[in-house]
Amino acid sequence: MAEAAAKTTPYTMGELMVAAAAREIHDGDVCFVGMRLPLIAFVVAKRTHAPNAVGLFENGVIRTTPAPELIYTMADPPNILGASQCLDMLSVMSLLQSGRVNLGFLGAAEVDRFGNLNSTQVGDATRKGHGFSRADKGETKSGALAPSGKITRLPGSGGACDIASLAQRFVCLLEHAKHRLPERVSYITSPGNGDGGNWRKRVGLPRGGPSACITTKCILRFRTPDDAVWTQAREGHGFSRADERQTKNGALAPEVSVVPELGEAYLASLHPGIELDDVLASTGWKLKVAPSVAATPSPTDAELAAIRDYDREGFWTS
After folding, report:
1. Alpha carbon distance 163, 183 (integer Å)
2. How does strand 265-270 pair with strand 170-174?
3. Most buried residue among 163, 245, 257, 307 by CB atoms closer than 10 A?
4. Which residues of 161-181 are buried (b: 16+ CB within 10 A; e: fewer)?
5. Are strands 170-174 and 151-153 parallel, antiparallel or unpaired?
C-alpha cells in the first residue's frame, strides 16, 4: 500500500535524487556529507534506515544527528549546535587516511567513463597536458564547458581529492548532460578508476573508488571484479544491445549486453519517465547497459516526509 502511495505522490527530480543518495548510506556508515542534496540525503537516511550513520564535514564538524534546521553552509550555527565534535580540518580529514570513512558524496563539473572527477578547469589550456590533464593526446570529446579558445576556472578540489582517493567508496551527483559526462574529463581533480582495470592499485591508492553516479536521468554504477550484475555475462562473446526490449513498466530487459571494462560506468537504473535513448544521447561515450535495467524507485512516503520536513521551502530540492 505504501509502495503504491509513493508512486502516486508528486515529487521533484531533486527529491528523487536525494532519496537515491540516501539509500547509498548504510547503517553505521561514517560519511562525508557535504552540502546541497547529500546534506538532505543524510537526514533521510538517519530518519529511515540508517540511524547509526555518522556525518562528517570538512570544516571539522562531526554529527551523529542532523543539524536541527536547514543549513546553507557547513559553518552555519545550527551545524555547530549539538554537534558530537567540533574539531579542526586535519582531525576530520585524517579519518580518511586511517581508512575509517565508508562513504563520501562529491560533486563535479565533469565525470567521465571511469568515474574521474574534474572541478579544476575546462577549456583549451586543459588540453595540453597541464597538471593531471588526461586530454594531452587530443582525446577530449566535444561538449567542453568552456567555449573554444577560453578557459573557465572552477573552484578546485577542496577535500574532494582526499575523499575520492581514500574513502572506501564515493558517490557523485550531477546534471546529466553530454558536456558534464565526457568520455575523458578535461582534468583529473579527484581520481575515480583512472583508465580502468586495476588502475587504483597500480598508482598506490589503498581502497575505494566510485560506487555510483546519480544524475538527473539515471543511476550509473561502476563494474567491479565481483559485480553480481555481470556474473552471468561472458566477455567477448558477441554481446550487443540490438535485442533490448522495453517492458511495460519502463524497465529495460536486454537479452544481451556488452560487458563494461573493470572500473567502467554502466547504466544501472533509469529514473521514472526517462527514456533509454535520452540517456545514451546525453552521455559523452558509448554507455554500456546492464543486462536488466530497473526503474529508479520513487521516493517513499517516509523519505518524502523527511525531505520536506527538513527542506520545507524546497531550497535545495525544488
Report:
1. 22
2. unpaired
3. 307
4. bbbbbbbbbbbbbbebeebbb
5. unpaired
Task: Look at residue 149 in the predicted model and tell me its pLDDT.
Answer: 63
- Greatest CA separation for the chain: 59
Q: How far apart are CA 115 and CA 175, in angstroms?
A: 15
**Cα–Cα distance measured from residue 30 to residue 43, given in angstroms and rounded to the nearest whole number:** 14
DSSP characters for the chain? -HHHHHHHS---HHHHHHHHHHHTPPTT-EEE--SSHHHHHHHHHHHTT-TT-EEE-TTSEEESS--SS--SSTTSHHHHTT-SEE--HHHHHHHHHTT---EEEE--SEE-TT--EE-SEEEGGGGTT-TT-S-TTS-PPS--SSPTT-EEE----TTHHHHHHHSS-EEEEE---TTTSBSS-SS-SB-SSTTSTTHHHHTT--S--EEEEEESSEEEEE--TT-GGGTT--TTS---STT--B-TTS-B--SS-PPPPTT-EEEEEE-TT--HHHHHHTSBS--EEEEEEEEPPPPPHHHHHHHHHHSTT-TTT-
pTM for this predicted structure: 0.83
Low-confidence ranges of the chain (pLDDT < 70): 1-8, 124-149, 231-257
Grid cell for residue 256 = 544481451
Q: Which three cell numbers stand for residue 111?
A: 565525470
Domains of the chain, by residue range, sit at 2-310
pLDDT of residue 239: 41
Q: Which residues pair with 62 in a beta bridge?
A: 56, 85
Q: Which fold has domain 2-310?
A: Glutaconate Coenzyme A-transferase (3.40.1080)
Whether residue 47 contacts residue 54, with contact meaning beta carbons closer than 8 Å, is answered with: no
